[in-house]
Amino acid sequence: MLARIRQWAAELGFGAVGVAGVDLGSAEPGLAAWLEAGFHGEMDYMLRHGMKRARPAELQPGTLRVISLRLDYWPGAAEARAALADGTRAYVSRYALGRDYHKVLRSRLQKLAERITAEVPHTYRVFTDSAPVLEVELASRNGLGWRGKHTLLLDRGAGSWFFLGEIFTDLPLPVDEPVQPRCGRCTACIDACPTGAIVAPYRVDARRCISYLTIELKSAIPEEMRTMLGNRIYGCDDCQLVCPWNRFAKMTKEPDFAPRHGLDSAGLVELFAWSEADFAERTAGSPIHRIGHERWLRNIAVALGNAPTTAEVLAALQSRADHPSALVREHVAWALAQHGRAMAG
């Protein structure tokens, strides 16, 4: 049966399949310690779910196995590095350039689960980063890869530029064996983190992570962190860009993950000019949509504060200086002050 599942998954575009059991008890102490340290920041839902993340059968009663699947999204490295190197351009995490992966992946997972049902009826539930699931822990137990020091899953033949999705099932499928970790003494990801969010190997303080600061954080970005964001307006990929294993990353074959609205090369001033209606229209069906226009402007204001001082940048910031949102005004004022200091110095 498992051989046929792998075949059907490949036909749906998945890059790999692994099967794990549901006993994740050994992961609970690490999860508890991470929460106790407050590393989840404002992500209160993580605290609410608690140990449920490590107990698949509590999330979906009757679950005996978790089928993990990989879907590649890597669009290429050259453009990413060029965008980061140009302070006038906006950097958007590569996973968010195209269509919302939740929609793409969930649809594929559902099709696979239904295909399995047609062969062998089973009770199942699919997940795509949308529920309390320890997806990296599960995938590292079923042979899809190993947990890197940046806490993402790594595969020796595909790097880390892929999404993970799961099918919880009551089928007693044979489980796959884990693979040997291969990070060795490498600390490239830790050294490259712009904010020092990887506080120790395999341990990330989300409160310092740029992905958290630009996506999950709803309040003001801490002032002491703002210059560290550079031109990253939505997420961060630095730890993946420097990882040696990502030289084996697979280019995505999914048209849905192709960049939309020029977000892989757009300028900060251009994106800062988007009205709320522009934002709603151009991020429809994108993971960016959920942060809303206010936080979009907050993030870009910080990036403009870090950009080279030009008349165009100053004019863009001045155009939002009296914005109705106090959150936006605060970050615009900070950005203008940054340029004021730069010109005075």
Lay out the secondary structure.
Elements: H1 2-11, E1 16-20, H2 28-36, H3 44-49, H4 56-59, E2 65-72, H5 78-85, E3 91-92, H6 101-119, E4 124-127, H7 135-141, E5 146-147, E6 153-154, E7 162-169, H8 188-192, E8 198-200, E9 203-204, H9 210-216, H10 223-226, E10 232-234, H11 238-241, H12 268-272, H13 276-282, H14 292-306, H15 311-319, H16 326-344
Parallel strand pairs: 3-10
Antiparallel strand pairs: 1-2, 2-7, 4-7, 5-6, 8-9
Helix pairs in contact: 14-16
Defining traits:
345 residues, alpha+beta, 2 domains, 4-stranded antiparallel beta sheet, two-stranded parallel sheet, 16 helices, 10 strands
Q: How can the largest sheet be summarized?
A: 4 strands, antiparallel
* Beta-strand residue percentage: 5-15%
Shape: elongated
Overall number of strands: 10
Distance separating the two termini: 69 Å
The value of Rg in angstroms is 21 Å
Number of domains: 2
Mean pLDDT: 96
Placed side by side, the strands forming the largest sheet appear as 1-2-7-4
Report the uncertain regions. Answer: none
Contiguous helical run count:
16
SSE arrangement, N to C: HEHHHEHEHEHEEEHEEHHEHHHHHH
Compact summary:
With 345 residues, the chain is an alpha+beta fold. The protein has helices at 2-11, 28-36, 44-49, 56-59, 78-85, 101-119, 135-141, 188-192, 210-216, 223-226, 238-241, 268-272, 276-282, 292-306, 311-319, 326-344, and strands spanning 16-20, 65-72, 91-92, 124-127, 146-147, 153-154, 162-169, 198-200, 203-204, 232-234. 42% of the residues are buried.
Describe the 3D structure.
It is a single chain. This protein is α+β, with helices and mostly antiparallel strands and 345 residues long. The chain has 2 domains: 1-260, no CATH class; 267-345, no CATH class. 40% of the residues lie in helices and 11% in strands. The protein contains 16 helices and 10 strands. A 4-stranded antiparallel sheet has the order 1-2-7-4, sandwiched between helices. A two-stranded parallel ribbon has the order 3-10. Strands 5-6 form a two-stranded antiparallel sheet. Strand 5 and strand 6 (153-154) form a beta hairpin. Helix 14 (292-306) packs parallel to helix 16. The radius of gyration is 21 Å and the shape is elongated.
